[in-house]
Design a protein that fits this description.
The complex is a heterodimer of chains A (260) and B (284).
Chain A (H helix, E strand, L loop, with lengths): L14 H14 L3 H19 L5 E2 H9 L6 H16 L1 E5 L7 E6 L6 H6 L12 H19 L4 E2 H10 L14 H11 L3 E5 L8 E5 L1 H6 L2 H12 L7 H19 L1
Antiparallel strand pairs in A: 1-3, 2-3, 4-6, 5-6
Helix pairs in contact in A: 1-4, 2-4, 6-10
Chain B lengths: L7 H13 L1 E3 H14 L12 H15 L4 E7 L6 E7 L5 H5 L4 H16 L4 E3 H5 L13 H13 L3 E4 L2 E4 L1 H14 L5 E2 L6 E2 L3 E2 L6 E2 L1 H7 L29 H14 L11 H4 L5
Antiparallel strand pairs in B: 1-3, 2-3, 4-6, 5-6, 7-8, 9-10
The chains are: A mainly alpha (260), B alpha+beta (284).
């Protein structure tokens, strides 16, 4: 479920209340046919825009789809969210903080079919088709995200590059698969929302920090990463005491928010 | 109306089409089986019995995605008559589907490629002629020949075009998605197959009246004909082309042989032929 909007300034009427009534009014002022058409255009729009892997802005939704019915956005987004979930198995996520006012789509479907393929030698098709390049990039990303998490959820750039160099991925050398490694990490993965790359204040020469990006937080859990690292080192997750603590806390929060 | 609701099996099936764009008959059957296995949907062991449930499955999905201008449709290869299923965009802005993967210049190039393919003899063009299209791009950012080569490679990977023996032609996916577009834009320059009434770029043309047939439609039509004739009323001239009587890997030949054998044998003894050959057979 998309997270609810944070409480805005105290001296104003909570904006979520005002927009809800206005939005419902705006929506019901449209005739049935138009409501449906706009909804369908909206869903199509969201699917197409998400392919670019950039957060989708409310501004663009209003400009390109809703147009004169922009006020109905909250209602339309709720309806679109339902369609995406029921028909495509995709979750519409409203982003917070720096990305407030934007949306991304996240797959809720588990597309892993290893078990089914193993059960029958005649079955060889993977439903979702990944290129070798994509596989490799995801592998790199997994390693980077895990490293950042294990390091306390933030990692200084020099540290990360040092670690990668040990894995023969050198930011100064054009990699046969990743090409410009630095660009892949600081531009591509950041643009897609997998990493956050910020400058440490008052550093000269500049020092940068890597953190998990909004998309990483949605697509992967800290538990996944800890399990991954544990497997690599053939240890139990509990042996990483502070990291395990973080995982348990995250899962506690998850339970709370789904119970509420 | 009451529509069968979608379950995760349908959604995975749909996501697969969204990811791959097009799947051939064999792949579709596999995908269906995998989706059923994963989400515990009953699936008949016998491939032929799985046919009807599969069509029903696709129909359910199509009902739900139709409002979004999406449909899973069957297409037939003009080269060998084999079936494929593709996810197509049904609104007239078909190009919006491509729009997210390709730049405006690349789309312009692809349109020009379609133009020269339509104008060619056998719906195929050479790579030199194709690469030279970069000089014909108007009102868009220029493409270099290297860019064009890269584009062609991507178009091939994504199954929009076929490149064999230095010749480039439109693949089934393009025909499926763009047949309306081509028929509309090039109405006077293209024909429909006299038998299936679909766009026919590659096929055989009657030298007398110009009637065109797909290779596979001609094969079916003239299956038992000793002296094939043009099907057009008012023409009926001898069909001067070799009929591809074995459209796929000898399956067709085996079918006739098997039918004859069946007629001869009355006993229900176990057949000595490999039955699985027919499982793949054209019921779709």
């Amino acid at each position: 479920m998309p997270r609810t909007n944070k409480q805005p300034d105290n001296d104003r009427i909570p904006s979520s209340q005002v927009s809800a009534t206005q939005a419902e009014k705006a929506h019901s002022s449209m005739d049935r046919g138009e409501q449906e058409k706009k909804l369908h255009d909206l869903v199509q729009f969201l699917l197409i825009m998400d392919q670019k892997k950039l957060p989708i802005k409310k501004l663009d939704i209003n400009k390109q789809v809703l147009k004169e019915h922009s006020k109905a956005l909250p209602v339309m987004m709720k309806l679109a969210e339902e369609k995406l979930r029921k028909i495509f198995g995709i979750e519409l996520v409203s982003l917070e903080d720096k990305q407030k006012g934007t949306y991304i789509l996240v797959n809720t479907l588990d597309t892993d079919v290893d078990e089914q393929l193993e059960s029958d030698p005649n079955l060889t098709l993977t439903p979702v088709d990944w290129s070798d390049e994509n596989h490799a990039k995801t592998g790199l990303l997994m390693v980077v995200l895990s490293a950042i998490f294990m390091n306390g959820e933030v990692m200084v750039d020099s540290q990360l590059y040092h670690m990668l160099r040990k894995l023969k991925v050198d930011q100064d050398v054009t990699h046969p698969v990743f090409g410009d490694v630095k660009k892949q990490l600081t531009v591509e993965f950041v643009r897609q929302g997998y990493l956050e790359y910020t400058r440490q204040p008052n550093t000269d020469p500049p020092v940068f920090e890597f953190r998990w990006g909004f998309r990483a937080k949605k697509e992967i859990t800290k538990r996944n990463c800890l399990d991954f690292v544990s497997q690599l080192y053939e240890k139990n997750p509990e042996e990483w005491v502070s990291q395990y603590q973080v995982v348990v806390e995250e899962e506690g929060e998850e339970e709370e928010s789904s119970a509420s | 109306q009451i529509m069968t609701q979608m379950n995760d099996g349908h959604r995975l099936f749909l996501q697969s089409f969204m990811s791959r764009g097009i799947l051939n008959a064999k792949e579709v059957k596999q995908l269906f089986k995998i989706c059923c296995l994963k989400y515990k949907i009953p699936h008949p062991e016998n491939e032929r019995e799985a046919q009807a449930p599969l069509l029903e499955f696709v129909r359910t999905i199509n009902n739900h995605i139709e409002p979004f201008h999406m449909q899973i449709r069957k297409g037939v290869s003009e080269d060998d008559g084999s079936s494929s299923y593709g996810l197509v965009c049904t609104s007239e802005s078909t190009i919006t589907k491509l729009a997210s993967d390709y730049t405006p210049s690349e789309l312009e190039f692809f349109k020009k490629l379609i133009e020269i393919i339509v104008a060619s003899d056998n719906a195929e063009v050479g790579s030199t002629e194709t690469l030279n299209l970069v000089s014909r791009l108007e009102n868009v950012k220029k493409l270099s020949k290297d860019d064009a080569e890269d584009l062609l490679s991507r178009l091939e990977t994504n199954k929009w075009i076929k490149m064999t023996h230095g010749k480039i032609s439109l693949a089934t996916r393009s025909l499926l998605e763009l047949d309306q577009y081509i028929l509309e834009i090039y109405q006077d320059d293209v024909e429909k197959c006299n038998i299936c009434k679909k766009l026919c770029l590659k096929g055989q043309t009657c030298p007398s009246c110009g009637t065109k047939l797909h290779f596979h439609c001609a094969s079916k039509l003239f299956e038992k004909e000793e002296n094939p004739k043009c099907p057009k009323q008012g023409c009926k001239k001898a069909w001067p082309y070799e009929i591809r009587r074995t459209p796929r890997k000898g399956e067709y030949f085996l079918k006739r042989l098997f039918t004859q054998e069946l007629q001869r044998r009355v006993k229900k003894e176990r057949q000595t032929y490999d039955m699985s050959v027919f499982a793949d057979w054209r019921i779709m």
